[in-house]
Amino acid sequence: MPQPRTSAKGTSGGTGGTRETSGGKEKSAEPIDRTRRSKRPPPESSSKREPRPIDPGLYVVATPIGHADDITLRALKVLREADIIACEDTRVTAKLAARHGIATRRIAYHDHNAEKMRPALLGRLREGGTVALVSDAGTPLVSDPGFKLVREALAEGLSVTVVPGASATLAALVLSGLPSDRFLFAGFLTAKQTARRRELHELKAIPATLIFFEGASRLGEALTDMAEVLGDRPASVARELTKLHEEVRRDGLAALAAHYREAGPPRGEIVIVVGPPGEVAPDEPGLDERLRAALPAMSLRDASEAVATATGLPRRQVYARALELAAKSK
């Protein structure tokens, strides 16, 4: 006798099924589950993992040069997790700490106590401690005693890490419009004129853009000596970088010196950037006239290109002057 024909059909929901026979419908022995999958527990989300603590060692941490928001997330982590923060001025760093809720103990490390404090900091590092080194503003080791601490830590094979960030030196170079492919940071010149001129003579032949720090009260005198010793090179004077009253004045050294002798010392911290040998200060009357005629009809870059071609002046120099004229016209 032939067997009855059967066929299996799943329900639309996929959670059960029926079996049809010649005698009618009956429930299947086992429901059909089309949604069943082999499920593994999801991997732990990286956002839920415990953050890894920083390793022991010396951390050289850059802090803002003006605008308080110019600090990296990594810098904040290091400052929070370090055992101590070695500060150029604990009062200045206290403001940064209060803004970001950093409770790490702070100690002073500056020119006047470095010889006494350095052995203590090195001792803590030898014991596996974590020290964060900061200056009042910018990247430590630029015109401060931090390099001696780094040098001795490296000599002992201790871990040294940099946490990069704001730098007045690089900010001024970028804003100057002068060649940045090769540059020399010369720091502060000597305050006395005879020694200052001697230092400038030593720097005169270096084929690079020169970067100086200078006190506001000596700015006019320093620019005058630069113009006489280095020649009337294109230069810029930057002050209050990243702050509300940031100013960058670009011109030849002689014109800049005359301006600050007449205007008097400006406020704020000063960075001077001087073009390399061979750079010619702009022929301001003729150059300005050509640029003012070209700028209304062209983009700043096209106007600079056209004027540089017509005058034979370096393109970067003409572009820097065009930037200044455009800023003054706003």
Account of the 3D structure:
With 330 residues, the chain is α/β, with parallel strands linked by helices. Helices cover 38% and strands 19% of the residues. The chain folds into three domains: 57-166, 3-Layer(aba) Sandwich (Cobalt-precorrin-4 Transmethylase, domain 1), CATH 3.40.1010; 169-274, Tetrapyrrole methylase, C-terminal domain (Methyltransferase, Cobalt-precorrin-4 Transmethylase, Domain 2, 2-Layer Sandwich); 284-329. Mean pLDDT is 85; it is low at 4-30 and 34-39. The chain has helices at 73-81, 90-100, 114-126, 146-155, 168-176, 193-203, 219-230, 253-263, 284-294, 300-311, 315-329, and strands spanning 7-10, 17-21, 24-27, 57-61, 84-87, 105-108, 130-134, 160-163, 183-188, 209-214, 234-239, 247-252, 270-274. The strands form three sheets. The chain has a five-stranded parallel beta sheet, with helices on both faces. It has eleven helices and 13 strands.
In short:
This protein has helices spanning 73-81, 90-100, 114-126, 146-155, 168-176, 193-203, 219-230, 253-263, 284-294, 300-311, 315-329, and strands spanning 7-10, 17-21, 24-27, 57-61, 84-87, 105-108, 130-134, 160-163, 183-188, 209-214, 234-239, 247-252, 270-274. The chain has 330 residues and is α/β, with parallel strands linked by helices. It has a five-stranded parallel sheet with strand order 6-5-7-4-8, sandwiched between helices.
